[in-house]
Design brief:
Layout: H1 2-14, H2 16-44, E1 50-53, E2 58-60, H3 67-80, H4 86-89, H5 92-102, H6 105-109, H7 113-118, H8 123-163, H9 175-186, H10 188-208, H11 213-235, H12 241-254, E3 282-284, H13 290-299, H14 305-327
Parallel strand pairs: 1-3
Antiparallel strand pairs: 1-2
Length: 331
């Protein structure tokens, strides 16, 4: 256990820029942008910050809010504030992708693998530490950073409301303030299971490729899909090449994108929606119960065979990566 702890510390120290500083900087920029926006609202009385409700209705931050609108706005703040720092969470798939792609290749490229193999540390422990870092530690770190920055964003909005005579600080006492981050954490098992085949493929290529792992990891499935679609169209073979692009290329390379599983959910096709309202917009949909509803639907993915097939394939590729690291020789 002590060995695993130091292996995880090593991975964190070597990749602190991607796993800590990148989401922190992105979140700080979003917080700055939000602060400038709400200050503008408070000073000029413009209507640029608001909650987007179902049916296309919008409630904007202003002194003319009715009591009902104020209650709805407060509810939106309490239950949807974690969405204020969504860009922080979308830094994660890029850092995970390139970490997994380079974690075993870089050791061989700079020959440091010889040093690590000289230590009493098994290849299994080394690969598992990298897997734990990318599927557990990195997401938890991102969630922690995102939650802190979301709370600061919520505080900024409440202070802006106080400037124009509106008291939103009651939202800070809502149980949703505590439950919303915990709900995000509760989605982590679904995220890890969904991302496992992508991480497994990237680590397998990282352990196998002698050069240019990105071209092997991305180029091979994309080129194969292109040839498949070309041959299908040219010879009229009638193959379902759309399935290949969706399940092999889309899921195989995009599994680290948070929430991508909703596009594959048997009952929620097209659930992901974009909100045109800037970083201060929040979706408040009483028919779907907000983030709690998304959590329940996410866990339903464990009842689908596609997720477990992906887990099995990902685990097999991780095992192959361990074997390759043990026997791979760069000459």
């Amino acid at each position: 256990m002590n060995t695993m702890k130091w292996l995880l510390k090593r991975e964190y120290w070597e990749h602190k820029g991607g796993f800590f500083w990148a989401p922190l900087i992105v979140g700080a920029i979003m917080l700055l942008f939000l602060t400038v926006s709400v200050v503008t609202v408070a000073v000029t009385g413009s209507h640029h910050i608001g909650c987007h409700l179902e049916g296309g209705r919008t409630i904007c931050l202003s002194q003319s809010m009715t009591p009902t609108q104020r209650d709805q706005f407060v509810h939106g703040l309490a239950s949807g504030y974690v969405g204020l720092e969504t860009p922080v969470y979308f830094v994660l798939p890029f850092t995970m992708f390139f970490f997994a792609l380079g974690c075993l290749f870089d050791d061989r490229k700079d020959r440091s693998v010889l040093f690590w193999k000289s230590l009493p540390i098994s290849d299994h422990a080394t690969v598992v530490s990298k897997l734990a870092m990318v599927l557990l530690i990195a997401p938890l770190l991102t969630i922690a950073i995102g939650t802190v920055l979301s709370l600061l964003s919520l505080l900024v909005i409440c202070l802006a409301g106080a400037v124009i005579g509106l008291n939103f600080f009651g939202a800070l006492l809502s149980p949703d303030i505590v439950l919303s981050p915990l709900t995000v954490v509760a989605m982590l098992p679904v995220y890890a299971a969904w991302a496992l085949p992508t991480i497994g493929w990237l680590m397998l290529v990282s352990a196998w490729a002698r050069t240019k792992p990105f071209l092997w990891a991305v180029g091979v499935p994309v080129l194969a899909g292109t040839l498949l679609s070309w041959g299908n169209a040219l010879f009229g073979l009638g193959w379902n090449d759309a399935w290949y692009w969706q399940h092999i290329v889309g899921r195989g390379l995009g599994g680290t994108v948070p929430g991508l599983w909703f596009a594959y959910h048997p009952h929620l096709d097209g659930i992901l929606q974009s909100v045109d309202g800037g970083p201060a917009g929040m979706v408040v949909d009483s028919t779907r119960q907000g983030i709690g509803w998304l959590l329940a639907q996410s866990w339903q993915m464990f009842a689908t065979p596609g997720l477990w097939i992906g887990v099995a394939v990902g685990a097999a590729m991780i095992y192959a990566a361990i074997r390759l690291r043990r026997w791979r020789d760069e000459g």
